[in-house]
Amino acid sequence: AHLERRPDDADGWLELARLRAEQLQQPAAAAQAYRQALAHRPTSLAALRGLRHVAETLRDWREVARSLDLEIELSAAAAAGERLALQRRLGEICWRRLGELERAARAGHAALACAPRDLETLRPLAQLLAQAGQWSEAVELYEREIEILGDQEPGRRQSLWLQVAEISLATLADPNRALRGYEEAARIGGLQPAAVRAWARARMWSGVSGPPGWSGVVAMGGGLRAHRLGALVRHDSVPRRHAHGARRSAPRSVLRR
């Protein structure tokens, strides 16, 4: 009755929305009341957050994303941690629920701007960019994560360097960047023969040649065995004479079966 007399009472609509959401367990009716509250007070964070909560209950992901967008606009002066959480949630909803990759990427970049060294933000953004085919940006984030990790997680760093190398070679047509990726990966540990073959192709495409250089490739890729050299030549990864040079100069630990 009160709202019939005063339909512009934002506080009244907010109180009704909370009653419907929390006590009556009527999320759809609560959403209608929250929208009425926002119609009369568009800057109400309480109404926006309440609407987002019931929209999640209703699995109305577009409403969730819309509410997050509005809350982000109203939270421009909020602490970085709060803005980070909002942007990350928006990115997750747009990516996982709506399939809107570009919108999700924008939210991810905005989140990363709030905390440039936050791996929980950086890693999913890199995955999203790779899924969206934005390879150059994905590689930049892989390299940034490597820098953040420092000496920690060597297995993770080697995997990232190999991703940098593979994408640079196969997609970005950047053999020099690929070379660096393979070299850094090999410094961390032995490489599988497929990676060594790709490394050899990167060397050839970038103009690096000669037996000493190829011997160094094999020596650094400590996982390679001598009986694999013939396979590398058959795949035209490297000139046959370089394979012979590699066999002669590879360290004993590499040649031992």
What does this structure look like?
The protein has helices at residues 2-5, 10-23, 27-40, 45-58, 61-74, 80-97, 101-114, 119-131, 135-149, 154-170, 175-188, 193-205, 211-220, 229-234, 240-249, 252-255. With 257 residues, the chain is an all-alpha fold. The longest helix is centred in the middle third of the chain and has 18 residues, at 80-97. The N and C termini lie far apart (87 Å).
Helix content: over 70%
The string of secondary-structure elements, in order, is HHHHHHHHHHHHHHHH
Low-pLDDT runs of 5+ residues are 210-257
Mean pLDDT: 85
- Total strands: 0
Largest sheet: none
Counting copies of identical and different chains, the oligomeric state is single chain
**CA-to-CA gap between the ends?**
87 Å
Shape label: elongated
Q: Per DSSP, what share of the residues sits in E-state strands of 2 or more residues?
A: under 5%
- Counting helices, strands and paired strands, the structural category is mainly alpha
In DSSP terms, counting alpha (H) and pi (I) runs of 4 or more, how many helices?
16
Q: What integer value in Å does the Rg equal?
A: 28 Å
Short description:
The protein is mainly alpha-helical and 257 residues long.
How does the SSE layout of this entry go?
Blueprint: H1 2-5, H2 10-23, H3 27-40, H4 45-58, H5 61-74, H6 80-97, H7 101-114, H8 119-131, H9 135-149, H10 154-170, H11 175-188, H12 193-205, H13 211-220, H14 229-234, H15 240-249, H16 252-255
